[in-house]
Design a protein that fits this description.
54% of the residues lie in helices and 3% in strands. By secondary structure, the protein is mainly alpha-helical.
Amino acid sequence: MIDHTLFARRIADPRSFLRELRKAEAVFALGGTVTTWWGGPSLDREAFRRTYRDTIDALITRRGGTPTHWRKLDDAYQTEQMRDCRAIRDTQQRRVRLYYLGTPELRRRFGHLRSSHQED
């Protein structure tokens, strides 16, 4: 049994991670299983790698910092895009004039559908 008690803390050091991984590979070469924590389930090679991969992913995510704020995921942008989409659909289905598109992407793509207030 390899003692992996609190292995999420110990894995932070790359040398200890490699040391534990080599110990586990030696056990797997002999046909054995390992446990990651006291009283935990016995893991074969695939389950052990899955557990370590999940742990590494969690550590990277935790240390990655705050997620970036993307303009297109903002609620106001999404609302404006929904309104533009509805207005474009109305021009095609209900033959309604379109005077304003709020999002630059839709303005660039569907700008030819816009009408001016001077037209009668």
